[in-house]
Predict the 3D structure of the following.
Amino acid sequence: MTTRELARLATQVENGAPEALEFLASAPEGDGLIVGITGPPGAGKSSLVDALAAEMRRRDKTVAIIAVDPSSQASGGAILGDRVRMQRHHADPGVFIRSMATRGATGGLARTSAALSRLFRSAGFDFVIIETVGVGQDEVDVATLADVTVVVLVPGMGDDIQALKAGVMEIADIFVINKADRPGAEQTQREIEGMLDLAHGAIIPTIFRTIAIDGTGVVELLADLEGRKRKLRDHQLRWEIDHLGIAVRSIEEALPFYASHLGLPVLSRENVEHEKVRVAMLPAGASRIELLEPLDASSTIAMFLEKRGPGLHHVAMRVPNLHETIRRLESEGVRLLGTPRRGAGGHLYVFVHPASTGGVLWELIQD
């Protein structure tokens, strides 16, 4: 996708154009990290975003920046706009900057910020940075949108930290004390740490000190973000829905609905003799539908049908190392059904008892 095409799509997304919404519905998810940058006015959020973008490009990472600004009462557009932001990145194809107006929305974001961040992630950017307006303690919406929320503060805030405590201070994954060359940086850090000491049982946010205008501390901050991105990616790879197992009395009778009405072709058919079941696999996006027909009245699928009738039998999750996962689950008291076996398509699998999952039969598989 060219920069011009992306800009056009971004405008359509902001305006709620049906074709843009259709594009987003079918676009790939992408694996870029969405980073929310928030904090009070004057904390240097824009300077920090600019410094982060520069360091990302030095590491050959691409970044899309959503800069949310107050709306102009005259035009309705963003007051600041990207023309006065981050000029040194203007001609860099690896940086895409989009200013958007709040258009009356509260919470520090615009109404279409979520859709725009999804667009940029699907476009393949390594990082998507959302810089909020900077309105104060009620600016917490970004936490529901971002994978990582960075709260930027400055030395000398004093009682302001306590005033912010009930809102924006509680959403931080990372605290950044920017303009750390100013007097009071050490005291500000102690105040943050004192506040965090009260958060018993919570995951304690990391604290960094930066001087955004000369890049001090930015390398360390980005290293932390990259580590979080790797952990998020590994988690997504580790726990991914592979298929939904649906018990049917007859695959041939069930197939017309999936093939004719849903347009799902049959990928494969197979008899799994030790399970006494016939299987048909159908594609469903990145996952699959597994239709299960009993071959014998003594099979578990036949007994399921006798007791509950046709319907969802299990949910299958793909894991990279089944034996390691089994050892960890057993050490944590999770109840498994039997030992790993070979299933349809040759994958290794084991079932987790519904008593450990809240009533749903889970299948863990490894290709």
Summary: The chain has eleven helices and 15 strands. The longest strand covers residues 240-247. The radius of gyration is 25 Å.
